Write a sequence for this structure.
């Protein structure tokens, strides 16, 4: 560890991962606003509806996974600036994979679960408990997968428990933020 200690490492890595996720989300918004996925899907003939749908879904998953990978890559780069890491490029690639892969893998199942809950939820009931519980679960699941992937991809197997143990506070923070998201959406929409 270089001079500056753990506090500097924590702050710079949090800024790196947070800034990377913000930049990745911004890039995703621009991809969606410019309708780049729709343009690519329109290259498939109209008679091939299911192929067009598949192309759109795959490109959408790649765009979302790329946004997460941008966050992981920038966070990994920030950590290589603070810590002495043997192979910085390898660490950056694995860090990007650790954040992008769970995001892309969870996208469709979580959309499906949200749709099922939306159909089962009584619209007359305006209490946000179901949405709070659902988004908390999403945050915990995503944080757990990111922690496990970071542990497996970036550290040796016998040291991976340390990464998983370090992820639990972040996991709780993400879950808490996602739990408050439905209340903010309710205030914005209604």
């Amino acid at each position: 560890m270089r001079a500056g200690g753990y506090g500097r490492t924590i702050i710079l890595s949090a800024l790196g991962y947070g800034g990377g996720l913000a930049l990745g989300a911004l890039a995703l918004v621009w991809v969606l606003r410019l309708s780049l996925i729709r343009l690519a899907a329109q290259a498939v003939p109209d008679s091939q509806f299911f192929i067009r749908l598949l192309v759109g879904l795959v490109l959408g998953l790649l765009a979302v996974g790329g946004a997460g990978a941008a966050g992981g890559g920038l966070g990994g780069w920030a950590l290589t600036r603070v810590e002495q890491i043997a192979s910085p490029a390898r660490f950056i690639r694995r860090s990007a994979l650790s954040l992008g892969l769970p995001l892309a893998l969870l996208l469709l199942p979580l959309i499906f679960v949200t749709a099922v809950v939306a159909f089962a939820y009584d619209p007359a009931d305006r209490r946000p408990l179901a949405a709070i519980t659902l988004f908390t679960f999403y945050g915990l699941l995503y944080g757990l997968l990111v922690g496990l992937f970071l542990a497996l991809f970036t550290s040796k197997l016998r040291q991976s428990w340390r990464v998983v143990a370090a992820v639990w506070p972040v996991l709780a923070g993400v879950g808490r933020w996602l739990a408050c998201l439905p209340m903010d959406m309710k205030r914005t929409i209604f």
Summary: Residues 67 and 83 are 24 Å apart (CA to CA). DSSP finds six helices and no strands in the chain. The radius of gyration is 19 Å. The longest helix spans residues 49-82.
